[in-house]
Amino acid sequence: MKLANIIVLLLVSLTVFANSNIEATKVSNNQLFKVSYISKADPIKINKIHSWMIHLEDMNGNDIEDAKITIDGGMPAHNHGLPTQPQITENLGEGRYLLEGMKFHMLGYWTVTVSISHGNLSDEVTFELNF
Ligand SMILES: [Cu+2]
Question: What distance in Å separates the CA atoms of residue 36 and residue 55, rounded to the nearest whole number?
Fold first, then answer.
């Protein structure tokens, strides 16, 4: 492969990697829920408050409509949490929830943990973001 092609491929992969903070889907730690988020800000800018939409499904693909969701997170390497206290402010129906108050105030590796309780089930999932 020509060097130029390799460089183009690298740039494309880097772009994809950089955009990967915008959305993600993961199964919760105990395999109870499938959890997705989409950032309403694209790209997510450092120090800028923005919203996410969270989507919840059970493992059969049914929307979960009346869950309680709390958010925690931070930078493990720096031993600090999120600079804000993001909250679910609206149940949007069809398993979607509006999460307001997201903010990342420095470059680096962040985790965002979504804790879910629904009926007598609770579980959590941790998303990883790199800025
Ligand atoms: Cu930090």
Answer: 5
pLDDT digits (tens, 9 = 90+) for 55-106: 999 999 999 999 999 999 999 999 999 999 999 999 999 999 999 999 999 9
Looking at the chain, the whole-number percentage of residues with pLDDT higher than 70 is: 85
Cα(78) to centroid(ligand 1), Å: 5
CA distances from 88 to 84, 102, 122, 130 (A): 13, 10, 17, 23
Q: How many domains does the chain have?
A: 1
User: What CATH number does residue 73 fall under?
Assistant: 2.60.40.1930
Neighbours of ion ligand 1 (CB under 5 A): 75, 78, 106
> Ligand 1 centre from 91 Cα, in Å?
31
Give 127 Cα–ligand 1 centroid separation in angstroms: 16
pTM of the full structure: 0.86
